Amino acid sequence: MRFSIIIPTLGRSEELILMLDSLLNQSFKDFEAIVVDQNEKDILTSIINSYKNSLVLKHIRIPARGASHARNEGMKIAEGSILTFPDDDCEYPNDFLMRVNTCFEENPEDGIVANTMDKTDGKAIANLSSNEIKIRRSNILKTVIEAGIFIKSNIADGIWFDEDLGVGSPSGYCSDEGPDFVLQLLAKGAEMKFYPDFRMFHPNPVRVYNEQTAIRAYKYGKGRGYFLRKNKFGLKGILYFLLLYILGMLKSIVFFNKQMFMYFVKGFKGRYEGYFKSK
């Protein structure tokens, strides 16, 4: 088995169908999909069963919440030589796995990270590098998003996602589990590269500024602050991100945009608390 595609899912069915449909349409077929189901009620079995004659598909149900916990559980049963961790609302272009596989065959890297873009407008959903670049500690937050990680399973052996980080974590630190995971891989000696032109689809979570996206900015901000403190990026690291959100507040004042202002206030607060008030 070449790829193990580990998909944490909670509270979504239509989005998961789109992801599984995109797997059906892949020109490269040597993969298994592992759906790690965290729903309290069984809402997916009938959907999963409808794909079992067309995909190599494993469906495991776990009671504990958290995307990082789900990925770790998926890794325990993965059989592929390359692991990847898309969200349940991702989709792959038809030639995506073929291009990734060719990249591994032609290059020496132990892992790569692909870019993510919104399918409706074609824009990247995260402010990552526009250059093809070797991933290092110094550029980790400009090159890594968890849904785009592809890593050889032998290199990832013994490396786990920090379950205090990521959506659904009981800690409330709802981001940066991907960069944290990759830092562990780099410390083990993994060679990894970011390919901005390898693009998969993921809806942009902040198309507009409103109360919901402000709450998200706070939770994800806490994750960023905690990540920076945990990995000892120092005051320089956190002050840089706090400054970005101060600039965002100033921009929102110029445009008289209250919702935008609250987004950056909440994001600032989350980053501050995640760094200075985390255990």
Automatic annotation (TrEMBL):
Domain (Glycosyltransferase 2-like) ranges: 4-132
Transmembrane residue ranges: 238-256
UniProt cross-references to Gene3D superfamilies, sorted A to Z: Spore Coat Polysaccharide Biosynthesis Protein SpsA, Chain A
Signal sequence segment: none
Keywords linked to the UniProt accession: Membrane, Transmembrane, Transmembrane helix
SUPFAM superfamilies: Nucleotide-diphospho-sugar transferases
Domain of life: Bacteria
InterPro entries, alphabetized: Glyco_trans_2-like, Glycosyltransf_2, Nucleotide-diphossugar_trans
Name recorded for this polypeptide: Glycosyltransferase family 2 protein
Organism: Aquimarina addita
